[in-house]
Amino acid sequence: AGSGAGADMRTEISTAAAFVTRLLRAAGGVGEEQLRCFRECLQEAMREHYKHHWFPLVPSKGSGYRCIRINHKMDPLIGKAAGMIGLSHERLFQLLPSELTLWVDPFEVSYRIGEDGSICVLYESPQAGGKAAKQLESRTSCKEEWRIGRSSPSKSYNMMTVSS
């Protein structure tokens, strides 16, 4: 039954991996060849990790398992990919935000920098249903936030609700 699962999550995984790679590139000091290798290793690690935890019919199921998190501890998938290009956890903590949450779900990839930052959508498929309109408004304000590194507190927790 799970034969098509790998193909289904390709866009979500490549979006998430490209985002983390962009953060590394923006921090500087990592070569393009290393970044390319990092992105491929991260995609591979995510594919392996999500293989039996991807439920397009119930997109929120397994969301916590798929969540990529840096919070004074390095996410193992990012750590593994970084290890492949010789980046230590210490170096990663210097390059990446100290608080980063990345949700990789069927039809939607979103992230939050800082514990009280607003949630920004990186990728959204039309199949996700009726919640698209709400989130599009916040998209423009999000683009600058990760450059600043500190976003204003926001009450956008209602985005976590699953539309019926």
Automatic annotation (TrEMBL):
<protein>
    <submittedName>
        <fullName>BTG1 protein</fullName>
    </submittedName>
</protein>
<dbReference type="GO" id="GO:0005634">
    <property type="term" value="C:nucleus"/>
</dbReference>
<dbReference type="InterPro" id="IPR002087">
    <property type="entry name" value="Anti_prolifrtn"/>
</dbReference>
<dbReference type="GO" id="GO:0008285">
    <property type="term" value="P:negative regulation of cell population proliferation"/>
</dbReference>
<dbReference type="InterPro" id="IPR033332">
    <property type="entry name" value="BTG"/>
</dbReference>
<dbReference type="Pfam" id="PF07742">
    <property type="entry name" value="BTG"/>
</dbReference>
<dbReference type="InterPro" id="IPR036054">
    <property type="entry name" value="BTG-like_sf"/>
</dbReference>
<dbReference type="GO" id="GO:0005737">
    <property type="term" value="C:cytoplasm"/>
</dbReference>
<comment type="similarity">
    <text>Belongs to the BTG family.</text>
</comment>
<feature type="domain" description="Anti-proliferative protein">
    <location>
        <begin position="96"/>
        <end position="115"/>
    </location>
</feature>
